[in-house]
Amino acid sequence: MIQEYQLRVLPEIAANEQRLKEYLVQEKGLDAREITATRVLKRSIDARQRTVFINLNVRAYLNEVPQDDEYRHVQYNKVEGKPQVIVVGAGPGGLFAALRLIELGLRPVIVERGKDVRERKKDLAQIGRQQTVNPESNYSFGEGGAGAYSDGKLYTRSKKRGNVDKILNIFCQHGASTSILADAHPHIGTDKLPRVIENMRNTIIECGGEVHFETRMDALIIEKDEVKGIETNTGKTLLGPVILATGHSARDVYRWLAANRVEIEAKGIAVGVRLEHPAQLIDQIQYHNRNGRGKYLPAAEYSFVNQIDGRGVYSFCMCPGGFVVPAASGPQQLVVNGMSPSNRGSRWSNSGMVVELRPEDLLNENTFLNEEPFLNE
Q1: Where do the structural domains in the chain lie, given as residue ranges?
Q2: How buried is 226 (Cβ within 10 angstroms: 0-12 exposed, 13-18 middle, 19+ buried)?
Q3: Which of 15, 25, 194, 353 pairs as cysteine with 296 (C-beta 3.0–4.6 A)?
Q4: For the segment 99-112, what is each residue's pLDDT rounded down to a tens digit?
Q5: First CA to last CA across the chain, in angstroms?
Q6: Are 3 and 62 a contacting pair, CB within 8 Å?
Q7: Residue 242 has what pLDDT?
Q8: Does domain 84-259 have CATH number 3.60.15.10?
């Protein structure tokens, strides 16, 4: 038999499966001899009061061994010889687009201007050691996109959320911890995410897709207002429908689109600064404890949202127990980002603090296509 319970327990109980079983025995009247396994389905922290509690949705297996997997597998079949679709960019948009194409029986061909996720790490190290930026391999460009070395949080404020559960299950299928299925604010971690990304690439290739690194799309091939394929910096032409998953830093792509009369429009963004604080300080404030978070709680997060003069001002990409990193994608740029390893064990926490920027705030439409004044001054 399977039973599910909504529990509100102390952190030390939530962190220990044996103590959780004992709680079920004492508070729910279960027979300890009948509990063969437990599984946490949902987990969130309630730190609104002085005593911090963990809210759990727990499944208890009574007199039976779990037969269901912790996550749902997506079936990816072979697509050799199927119609091909060109995917420009191997960030999260491009990788998930490629996996979805395989589900639909189509063969993805990914072109990525940067390097694979492991080689890319060497170029990131040079930013810190030599203060040199490879414009084709940096915190924005390369396999995994801007998120690969930027924390690995899996969270969205968007109301158009899509099938979030399926995304989390795909991450687990490719090596992410199943804890992301339960946590209210799931987090893979900068140290764990590269391997997950590699596994996604391997799935794409094993199914018959292609991934080409250090291959930049220089132009779309357009005939009679219809996209037929792309031209690349390697001189190779690839034909087929095209998915642009280039991210916002590939400004050369958008300049090309505008120059070739492809209709594009500006959208609002947010700009600001990144604040860094002692992690212990944030723990003390958020957990109402002068001694910090203790043994059983994670590094504390915070979220700030306000309206000032009719504009949104809010915290962004809060990285508890993390690091501030230089994230320029070209020379003479000052850009920073934040990231956290999976254990969030740094002595420091940081967060972006940004303000809403609207298209009409910039001088004219050409400003959007020429990043120099905005990024470099």
Answers
A1: 2-62, 84-259, 269-376
A2: exposed
A3: 15
A4: 999 999 999 999 99
A5: 65
A6: yes
A7: 98
A8: no
Q: For 197-227, how does the pLDDT look when each residue is reduced to its tens digit (9 = 90+)?
A: 999 999 999 999 999 999 999 999 999 999 9
> Looking at 122-126, 233-237, 365-369, which range is the least confident one?
365-369
Cα-to-chain-centroid distance, residue 208:
26
Please state, in angstroms and rounded to a whole number, the distance separating the CA atoms of residues 200 and 187: 18
Q: Record the tokens describing residue 44, joined without a space.
A: 């969130």
Cα(94)–Cα(53) distance, integer angstroms: 39
pTM: 0.90
Please classify residue 204 by burial: count the beta carbons closer than 10 Å to its beta carbon, then call 0-12 exposed, 13-18 middle and 19+ buried: buried
Residue in the structure block whose two tokens are 């600001």: 272
- Alpha-carbon gap, residue 63 to 241, rounded angstroms: 53
As a whole number, the mean pLDDT across the chain is 91
Crossing angle, helix 92-103 and helix 193-206, to 10 degrees?
Answer: 30
- The closest alpha carbon to 115, from 72, 145, 88, 150, belongs to 145
Query: Per CATH, which fold does 2-62 belong to?
Result: Alpha-Beta Plaits (3.30.70)
Q: What is the pLDDT of residues 284-329, one digit of tens each?
A: 999 999 999 999 999 999 999 999 999 999 999 899 999 998 888 8
